[in-house]
Every structure is written in C-alpha cells, then in structure tokens.
Amino acid sequence: MGWLYSGLQVMNPGECASAHAHSASALRFIMEGEGAYTVVDGHKMTLGRNDFVLTPNGTWHEHGVEAGGQPCIWQDGLDIPLVNAMEAGFYAVHPDLRQAVGYPVDDLVSLWGAAGLRPDNIGWTKPYSPLFKYQWEPTYEALLRYSSARDDNPFDGALMHYTNPVDGGHVLATIGASMQLLRPGFVGKAHRHTGSFLYQVAKGQGYSIINGQRFDWQERDIFCVPSWAWHEHVNTNPSEDACLFCFSDLPVMEKLGLYREEALADFGGHQPVLPSA
Fold first, then answer.
1. Domain interval for residue 77
2. 139 and 96 together in one domain
3. What's the domain count of the chain?
4. Could you read off the pLDDT of 4-48 as tens digits, one per residue?
5. Alpha carbons 217 and 212: distance in angstroms, whole number
6. Spatial strand order in the sheet of 213-218
C-alpha cells in the first residue's frame, strides 16, 4: 500500500533463513509462537509475542526458530515500493550464509533499552535506531502509565511512537512505528492525514471505520488506512483495553514536507457508515 509492503512469514522449529542484506528497510512484529530469533549485524535477539524488531537497510540479517520452539508467525513490513520507485533496490546473500554472533544475546536491549537513559561514550552515527528490538512488556506498561496520566487523544487514545534512543526520532529513515492503547469503550473521532498506515491488533477487539466502511478487528488482525482516508477507531470491549501496532511512511512525509492532517468537522466528528455491499 502506497510506499509500504506488508507480508506474513511462518517458520517452524528448526527452520532458519540464510543471512542476507538489501536496500529496503524492514521490520517484524511477532504474532505468535516460541523460540524465534533474529541476528542483525552479529547481534542475536530472542523474539516474543508482540515484540517489534528492526532490520535496517544494508544490515546483514537472518532469522529462524530454535529446534525446541513452536511454530512462529510474524508480520514483515518493508519500504520496497519506495526503494523500487527510486531505482535503488539491491540484494546480497552473505558469503558464508550465516553470520558469526559476536555479542551476548539481547545485548542491544541491555545497552539501549533503559527508558530515559542513554549509554555513555558509545558512538552511533547511523541513520536508524541502535535498539533493534522493542519488547512488548515495557511498551504496554508505558502505554498504561501514559493513559493514566492524561486525557485521551480524541482520535487515537493513548498513542506513543517507537523512537531512536540516540536522538528521539523515528526508528528508521523511511519507516515509523507506533503503539496505541484504546481504553475500554473508547470511541474515537474521525480524522485523515497523508501517508500510508498499516495496523496490527496486538490486544483486544473493536472496529475501525475507514472512508465510511466498517472493519471489525480482533487480536492478530491486520488492516490498513490509505493516505488521506477518513478513519476512526472504536474499542467495543467495556472492560478491557485494546492496543494497535502501526507502521507507516510518516518519516518520508515529514522529511519531504508533505504531512498534512485534518479532523472531520461534520456529523459530530463521526463518519456515516455506508451500507454493506
């Protein structure tokens, strides 16, 4: 959709993909399973449900599921359409097909994963986040604290962006990502903005109205909001919150000065729902 590509990958215990690199930036959002891992430029990371993982452009990366694990499914998100439009697509297979793991497992989380703290005297000048894995548990805890400390955004509830811990910017040069919490019974108002946004339901159930059409969703569902499409989100559970992961081309829109946003002024801020076809 737009400048973004989304796909699903399934790996069984004992399976692994050979190490490779490409011009497209990529991310993974883990849906289910146990024992999954990824290796990015020699850093091995374990992967759990609702973890968010980066494989920045140009980095050697491989992934698999340990022999004692369970079948794993994750969503892959890449900026392939943008890279292809720029005629800048390249792909390489590692000469050894596997990388040497040169660091302790999950070392990047230990170095860069402390909230509000940055390690001293570690130079990082690359245009992407050095924190390749963003764990679900601290993300959800941060959303709960944020939601309890202030009123909801009328469109998105409690919305937080995954950030580069070095400069506070987007995690990748061309792809941004966020997680939002919708309180029990939350009914969002409609707005629209430039940029393509792809959502995955990390928790809960509800529906979204996109350009007048209702789309019901539950955990693990994926849906998209095209650029400049009216949309609003609703949590239908009166007692449990819902969480939506999203990745987008927001960094591109912002860097090119093309980001624009508008709230729906009519109908009390809610779209009329069109009859089903």
1. 5-112
2. no
3. 2
4. 999 999 999 999 999 999 999 999 999 999 999 999 999 999 999
5. 16
6. 213-218, 205-210, 231-235, 191-193, 261-263
